[in-house]
Specification:
The complex is a heterodimer of chains A (about 260) and B (about 140). Chain A has about 260 residues and is of the alpha+beta class. In chain A, about 35% of the residues lie in helices and about 20% in strands. In chain A, strand 1, helix 2 and strand 2 (about 45-50) form a beta-alpha-beta unit. Chain B has about 140 residues and is α/β, with parallel strands linked by helices. Chain B is about 40% helix and about 20% strand. Chain B has 6 helices and 6 strands, in the order αβαββααβαββα. The N and C termini of chain B lie close together (about 10 Å). The chains are: A alpha+beta (about 260), B alpha/beta (about 140). The interface of A and B includes residues 64, 110, 147 and 150 of A.
């Protein structure tokens, strides 16, 4: 439950990197590298040795001096063009990340060094390429983070402690499924205006846990049941089972939204 | 949540649309900027050029290898090569929304407008910083 209290868990590089990364071998032809960079949606191509260990990187910005038609640097003579390999054009990799690294720190590394992507390696000794992290991945992480924060502010702050406290003070037994529903909901569950339980102002034996239009939905003191109260009228018994009740009213609410 | 205003840079360099391609491309050499908005005389954004446009121009120069054509290209107005449909943000756009636009349109920066006039630029590096600050 710790992750639901607004204190977000720090993300790792592994959470957002692309694991299945297209790479090219250092001894392959430059023509092939250009073809990949010109035709595929990515802008960075890691270069590996026979063992799959990172040895360099090519970016589409490196193609500045390369003839788009032959894929080979214009200033090489014909003999060299045929034999030009990736190795001759790649950059040495200076900045890398590891899957367990802090994602935010990896983003700052990119910003400070003006690189758009970091090859991800399994460990500093073997340099085995296991993925690539691009700035786009961190934009995604930022969007997720914002969505999570927005949700947190809308969502009623249900906690185990809070529910225990209310249960004790109001002497109610929560129906099966209620705790789980309010504690583990992925989305804000305020479409039916669930509220932190409070004692009904007129019917003191009833504890309101949700409201919708002029309906108050309540638990009854010393009972495990759900009652519906319209205005100041007499409470009507609806369900013993929270999940079944939830299903019914959500359906009714959905229908009302569509009809409205 | 952060908005564009919190992270945009306001010291934004812009290119007047009447500049030549040669004059415009020189602006990229100084400080490593990658996107420069193009404005008209009223400081309204009419286009944007990126260092990738610079790359494409340089490539075509190499291919032509003809001094006369190269001269013609260099002397042409920057409005001939700029990207015209520029997506902009405003200062109160949510930063997450700016990030979404950058991903969807595959662009690295958005000019920021205030009353239709250029007031700054927000780039992906600003969002890398925001992520570090907020996570």
């Amino acid at each position: 439950m710790a992750g639901r209290q607004g204190a977000s868990v720090k993300k790792k590089v592994a959470d957002y990197m692309t694991g299945e990364v297209t790479s090219i071998k250092a001894n392959e032809s430059m023509l092939e590298a250009c073809r990949l960079l010109e035709t595929r949606p990515f802008r960075h191509l890691p270069v590996v040795n026979e063992k799959g260990h990172i040895v360099g990187i090519l970016s589409d910005r490196d193609l500045v001096n390369i003839d788009v038609f032959t894929g080979i640097a214009a200033n090489l003579d014909d003999k060299d063009k045929k034999e030009a390999t990736v190795e001759e054009f790649m950059h040495n990799v200076v900045f890398v990340a590891q899957p367990e690294d802090d994602l935010a720190a990896a983003g700052l590394l990119m910003k400070q060094n003006r690189v758009g992507a970091l090859p991800v390696i399994d460990d500093m000794f073997s340099n085995k390429l296991v993925g690539i992290l691009s700035y786009i991945d961190i934009l995604r992480a930022y969007i997720d983070l914002s969505a999570q924060k927005n949700t947190t502010t809308i969502k009623p702050l249900y906690t185990e402690d809070l529910l225990n406290n209310w249960q004790e003070r109001l002497e109610i037994g929560f129906p099966a499924g209620y705790r789980e529903a309010v504690l583990t909901a992925d989305e804000p569950i305020n479409s039916l205006s669930y509220c932190i339980p409070f004692q009904h102002p007129v019917h003191s034996d009833f504890v309101v846990f949700a409201r919708w239009n002029d309906q108050l939905f309540s638990f009854k003191r010393n009972q495990v049941a759900i009652y519906q109260i319209s205005g100041n009228e007499k409470p009507e018994f609806t369900f013993e089972d929270f999940a079944a009740w939830q299903k019914l009213v959500h359906k009714a609410a959905d229908r009302a939204f569509f009809d409205g | 949540m952060s908005i564009v205003e919190d992270y945009m840079s306001t010291a934004v360099q812009a290119i007047d649309q009447s500049l030549t391609i040669e004059q415009a491309l020189k602006k990229f050499s100084d400080d490593g900027v990658r996107h420069i908005p193009v404005v008209n005389e009223a400081n309204k954004v009419v286009g944007i050029i990126s260092d990738r446009d610079k790359r494409n121009i340089e490539l075509s120069m190499q291919i032509f290898e003809d001094k006369q054509i190269a001269d013609q290209v260099n002397k042409a107005p920057v409005s001939d090569i700029m990207k015209r449909d520029v997506t902009c943000a405003s200062a109160d756009t949510e930063l997450a929304e700016a990030a979404r636009i950058m991903i969807d349109l595959k662009i690295g920066a958005l000019p920021v407008l205030e009353n239709e006039k250029l007031s700054g630029i927000i780039s992906y590096t600003d969002i890398l910083q925001a992520y570090a600050d907020e996570s």
